Amino acid sequence: MTDTTQTTPLRRMIRPRNDEGGDSPLTSSRALRLALTKSANDSIGLVLTVTSVAEDVVMLDDMLGGLSDDLLLVGLGREGARVGLVSLDLQLRAAIVEMQIVGAPIDQAATERAPTLTDHRLCEPFLGAFLKAFPAAVSGTPLGGWADGAALDDRFRDVRAAGLALADCKYRVVRMNVDLGVAERQGQIAMVLPLAEVTLPQVAVDPDPVDWDAAFQETVQDAHATLEAQLHSFSVPLATIEGLRVDQLLPLPGCTVSSVKLRAADGTTVAQAKLGQLGGMRAIRLQPAPLPQLTELAAGAAQELSGVLSPGLLDGPEEPLIDVTVDADSAETDGGKAGTGLMSGIEMALDE
Description:
Layout lengths: L8 H6 L13 H17 L4 E11 H6 L6 E7 L2 E8 L1 H12 L15 H21 L13 E6 L2 H7 L4 E10 L6 E9 L17 H11 L5 E10 H5 L7 E2 L8 E4 L5 E10 L2 E6 L7 H15 L12 E7 L12 E2 L4 E5 L2
Antiparallel strand pairs: 1-5, 2-3, 2-4, 3-6, 5-6, 7-9, 7-12, 8-13, 9-10, 10-11, 12-14
């Protein structure tokens, strides 16, 4: 009587899926074992047993350091670019070749030899079947989506050629050791593909509310403004200007310490101010414009009267007038009124 309790690799492959350890969750290791075993049997009829599965994440240099030139290195492409590789050691590729040439693995270990193009071509059916079965086998495991879209590419001649073709990034390396079932022959297959970085969705963060009124006020307050303090402006005959001498004093009729005007760069009067001192320095205090003085009214009436008189009634030739402006910084105060101005503080402009 045949012992039906014995479990063989073939029996495991043909067993219904719901019988594969009903309560055991499908892990990455279990999925890889099933995919590799079934691919080898379906593609070339090779029966093998996966003895161990190892997984690692390394940078390119460390990954290349774990390879040797006696391995068959077949490139893996995705979207027209080489992104990884799959490697077969001497014993596994020899068993694949023997299976297709003589129908079964030879009962002795393969002798050392470099991989050839013939090895590559004879191993393609097995590797193609494994790549095709891989995505569906690992779906729902941590390896899900890692090898999607990967396809066989050209062979790398050596490890150096692989290093020149692959990008410098993190790679996931999956190694599977297999038992070939004859003469204690052990083989290994490894698949290398870039690690799929998990990109967390960007959550839009509402910006802090802005107090536009306060921001506008701060902006306005920080703006620079240039103002000029003008103490007095009056007209002087050209003959008087030509006769000025050093240390000579000029009277400023109608000028007081309260007649300072702040002017903008374009000459617009911005405010009225009073001349004084603060901390030993000249200063001005903003204040309402003073009421007209009697002397100012008299001077204004005289100017209007002089404008009505005919030039023929004036004695002597008409002399051009000079507009003179006295800056507040150059003025001297005496008893709260500006009676005279220094010559260095006078700006003259010929009245046209």
